[in-house]
Amino acid sequence: MVNPGFFPLLIGGLLVNNYVLSQFLGICPFLGVSKKVGPAVGMSAAVIFVMLMATAATWPIFHFLLAPNDLNYLRTIVFILVIAALVQLVELVLKRFVKPLYNALGIYLPLITTNCAVLGVTILNIDSNYTFIAALINAFASGAGFLLAMVLFAGVRERLELVPVPESLKGLPITLVAASLVSVSFLGFQGLFGL
Prior knowledge:
Layout: H1 6-16, H2 27-32, H3 37-66, H4 75-97, H5 99-105, H6 116-127, H7 132-160, H8 172-185
């Protein structure tokens, strides 16, 4: 088992290996829920929670159930089922206790189930051979990196609403151009700490 330490995992998840801006995982909610900062923060909080809970559930399932019984080939299917159950739990809680956020997230909340960033963090924790604590730290850092990307991009998109955009770039084209520029800004962190 590998335990690279708290600080390298935190910086790695936030900046160096940012799932959205460096690894291009989780693009659907990144583009869909980043029109305003409020819903972007709410979606990111839900993703952080699901990443932490999915890691807390999938790590022991893999190490104590799948690996000892030579069932590694079932990893992806089992992880998706665990993530789907957790997303349903988050959806029920938000619908019951935070109705405005539930309405703001709309269709993107159930899509956390298919958010490849959530599945990616669980699989990469196993592939990196992290200890349980290191896997949880990596999941939190990856979720915080998702939050950082969402908030930065929501701020950019809110500013785009205030500037004149050529007619041919309005809508999705300018959104993709802005996303690529934000992503390029994170290339400067590559190689930091050897991550």
